[in-house]
Amino acid sequence: MEVALLPSNVRILVTSRPLNDIVEKLHNTSHIKSKSMDEISIDMAKHDIRVYIQHQLSTSMYSLSEMEIGRLVDTSDGLFEWARLACEFIQSPEEAATPIERYQQLMSAMSGGSGDLLDNMYKAILENAIGKSQTARDRFHSVMCQILYTKEPLSIDSLNAMRQNFSKSEDIYDVNLTLQSMGALLGGIADRSKPVRPLHASFYDFLSDTSRGGEFAIDVGDMHHNLALASLNIMQEKLCFNICQLESSYMWNAEVKDLNLRVKKFISAYLSYACRFWVDHAKGVKNGERLVKQVKIFFKEKFLFWMEALSLLESLNNAPAALASIAQWMEVGLLQSKKGHD
What we know:
- The chain has helices at about 20-25, 40-55, 65-75, 80-90, 100-110, 115-130, 135-150, 155-165, 175-180, 200-210, 210-215, 225-240, 260-265, 270-285, 290-310, 320-340; strands at about 185, 195-200.
- It is mostly helical.
- A two-stranded antiparallel sheet has the order 1-2.
- The radius of gyration is 25 Å and the shape is globular.
């Protein structure tokens, strides 16, 4: 390993949630010093949070007083993620409210709510970002459900490409209508080509738990059906013979010097996603009679081109398991269809 070549005085800092497998790997290793965040006193954490808040809000149009900063520090209860979100919220470029008004709104939401501190912060930010329009809230649920149930983070452009193939016309719109106001919670908003992902894992936890997220909690609904259908439609349209325009089919992939550049040019991020994950989404569809028909057409017309794409994407080794899974899923779907017609 190249790490062994580093000078002996180099130290590498790694932070993580205390997951069992990570703790077990690091706990009894002689050259690794592990320290639980629980061992750090709340006073030390609050001191660091005060310095952080003072720095973050130093460029605001309105400078908070020491007493107001102290209230933020005390309310954070030692949670850096809460402090980060608070600063983002107060500095939000919203013309309808000044920084001090957003500070007062935040303090009111924190003092009036019960339950988890971070959950209350998420609710305050989402209420401000989404508003009370039912259309905006419906779009929030749909977009966040798409982000929550994709198998790997996709960019805004890729999310939109998938959404253009959803089954209902009311679900086809630019996801940025929802995401543009959620920069405090999600990364990848400013650049439409960057993957959209939560800035903190606790936001996913919040959305996934009805008891925590309340009206903002996300239910999978028919999202797996939408993502499976979108993937099949995209592959049906985009896959073709010699998709990367290789000069010869007699060469191994490893022998094509510019293969990575060709793959990036001819296989878009959303087509790559569709090829690698459509089976996972199909398996999540319980009543898939209509989808079974789409799969049959796809296998008849595009199967070999799919295999070629998987090879180019270095994912061909996943094909046997995927085929076995989709065969079993189709068999169940056909049995359900037959019972329905009997």
